[in-house]
Inverse folding.
């Protein structure tokens, strides 16, 4: 992941919003079909050799992005019927929305479909160490993504560090509660009142941040997510 091209990344994201995975697959299916000079009915005929449920309407729905819940079986049938690599269905540039809060580049999807994302350096580690390394890598990726998030996330990062969780855990909770980051929600609640003297402004920011942070902690508890919270004397206590 490149951390040095922040401006370019977000300028690109503004011009070309992330596509749903179904739309990406549909666009590439149409591209492949036209390159092979096939009609939608002919694609369906080729697919029926592997799955009799295929018809022209299914091909049309996929191409138009109306089948967001594509199955792995569908991709395998298409790749076999058209004699193409799975990665062809993620060809092109741009970002793909895998879920409400997860966006990845098409190059990563192609690498996953090819198996190139597998880290060989884990092969010699014992099982327990492999598990720990996978979660460590997850937290590093989440921290990097949070640092590059287009929305302000300074309060989210502070809270994540205080609770001892990955930044994405706090971001996911904030989006579930307010459909925005903790930082954005805090600033929105302060609004135009942030004009008076600096001392009062800082006090209000801190108070609002604490109140919103408490809501996130309550949400994490309700969902059974474990986190640490400073106890007496600055020591951390584990919340179940």
């Amino acid at each position: 992941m490149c951390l040095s091209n922040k401006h370019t990344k977000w300028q690109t994201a503004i011009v070309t919003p992330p596509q749903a995975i179904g739309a990406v697959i549909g666009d590439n299916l149409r591209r492949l079909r036209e390159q092979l000079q096939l009609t939608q009915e002919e694609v369906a005929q080729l697919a029926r050799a592997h799955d009799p449920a295929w018809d022209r309407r299914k091909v049309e729905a996929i191409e138009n992005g109306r089948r967001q819940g594509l199955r792995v079986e569908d991709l395998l049938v298409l790749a076999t019927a058209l004699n193409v690599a799975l990665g062809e269905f993620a060809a092109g540039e741009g970002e793909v929305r895998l879920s409400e809060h997860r966006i990845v580049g098409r190059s990563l999807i192609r690498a996953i479909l090819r198996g190139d994302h597998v880290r060989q350096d884990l092969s010699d580690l014992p099982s327990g160490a492999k598990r720990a390394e996978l979660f460590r890598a997850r937290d590093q990726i989440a921290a990097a993504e949070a640092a590059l998030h287009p929305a302000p996330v300074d309060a989210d990062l502070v809270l994540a560090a205080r609770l001892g969780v990955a930044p994405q855990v706090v971001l996911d909770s904030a989006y579930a509660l307010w459909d925005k980051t903790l930082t954005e929600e805090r600033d929105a609640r302060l609004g135009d009142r942030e004009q008076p003297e600096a001392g009062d402004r800082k006090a209000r920011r801190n108070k609002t941040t604490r109140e919103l942070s408490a809501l996130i902690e309550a949400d994490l508890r309700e969902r059974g997510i474990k986190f640490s919270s400073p106890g007496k004397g600055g020591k951390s206590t584990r919340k179940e």
Notes: Residues 127-239 form one domain. Residues 1-15, 231-240 have pLDDT under 50 and may be disordered.
